[in-house]
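G., the chain you wanted modeled:
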Amino acid sequence: DGMDPVLAAHRRYQIAAAWFYAGDLRKAALSFQEIAAEKDSPWREIAPYLAARALLRAGLLNGDREAFREGMERTQAILDDPRQSDWHEPSRKLLEVWRLRAEPEVRLKELGSALVKPRKEDIRQSVIDFLYLVDGHPEIAEAEDADELAAWVVTMTGHSALSAEVATKWWRRRQNPAWLIPALATAKVEDSRELMQAAAKIPPGSPAYESVAYYAIRLAKRAGHREEARRFADRALNHELLHSSRNWILAERFDLARDWNEFLRFSLRRPEPNVVEYDGSEAEEETPGPAKDAPVFDSDALHQFDAHLPLTLWVDASRNKALPPHMQARIAVSGWMRAVLLGRSEEARSLMQRVVELQPGAAEVAKGFLDAREPGEARFASVYVSLWAPTVCPYLPGVWDLPVNLASPRARFGDRDGRRQSCWYPHRNDFNPRQPHPEDTGFLTAKQRVAGAQEAAQIESAPPWQATYLLKETITWARAHADDPRVPRALHMAVAASRYRGTDADTGKYSKQAFDLLHRRYPKSEWNARTSYWYK
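Predicted structure as tokens:
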């Protein structure tokens, strides 16, 4: 008694809030309702909203259906009262949230019906609520009276074990091309003939055409009808397609290549501008790397080259007119490194000559290798090239990687953000989860397939050309060929490699040996002056 009225009103509000957070929701609702009747309370206007909120929470958390009904009525009363217009939007959102939880079937149908109609207002929250219900209650889409949009999303995303049956049933009932898409995507092989015939009737001008074509190709492959899959793909690729659709269909057609020329023809994709894949989803960002919109190999072609193709086909690809010059150059550089590791001197010379043709400025650094008269000299020339251009390795660079240009090698740090980069890692299958089907290498002869597998295994077992290996090779050559004019620079680059390349427990020892050799034997060399440290 006698307390300041404003402070007393604050105290009553805090007590009501305490009941709310303690879980005594009926008492909280009653307290807030009493506050709503206090003419001078600063909490009078928000109190009806909080009372309704407490009742709705009691209905959901405590199973109090009467409280839930009363809370819904109070919320609707706020929406119907013009004097409480400041609380209309929060009340509307509150009503929608609790209906999602208490009446998911009804709310899902309402949202599905609304979302398929043209609307000018922002539908973001409706989409979020719709997907929340679909993810949490996929069984709703399997009901006989299911909302059509919900059923489509569930079957298309595979959230239901009955996706194939549900999608095919909807397609047969509606004959809507939109339903043909999930039907094709999830179909059982025994239903493939009916669905493939339907897919063939969808015209290129249809909004469903690109998706129907893509999933028809995949279904035909699953059913073992590879020639039919090729016809679908070739037909689609002859039409105007969205950028991303063309890439997806090219990937399927690439897997269906009959011969080497088809393999190359369908291997190239143009990166989607300003879209990248991040953590399994698409994100808006400038297309990374040097590729921009130039056609490049995606992971499927990269894996085929690195793990399955024999060196003879690398040599052919470096000059094959089916590929643009920038891709020929990538193949020539990496193929040269593979040839060196495989001890294939003739192919190595051919590939290095091709590098010079494509990158004329590379002639100076390539000269030592091309002029080598015996294996030891060619070996050191190869080490020199690897020191000169640290990102040279026996695997093709991907879209994110900076391509090697021997005419103007990049900074010692290989990636675009200046971080250490090395491609000298085991290229095992776990790095390439999308393994090709045995028939996907059908464009190779049996002899080529065996040679490719053997060469890939040999590359895997070769010692990585990291810091310690390069230091040892450089020191050995330098001690035996002190008058070679390349030695001072080679020693400088080898010491630097002990900082920016992969290292091991012996790296520091050989880094110091190279450093001491350079400073002792070539004190007046510019490379001596540039080498101030060795690295552990």
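Residues 428-434 have pLDDT under 50 and may be disordered.

Shout if anything looks off.
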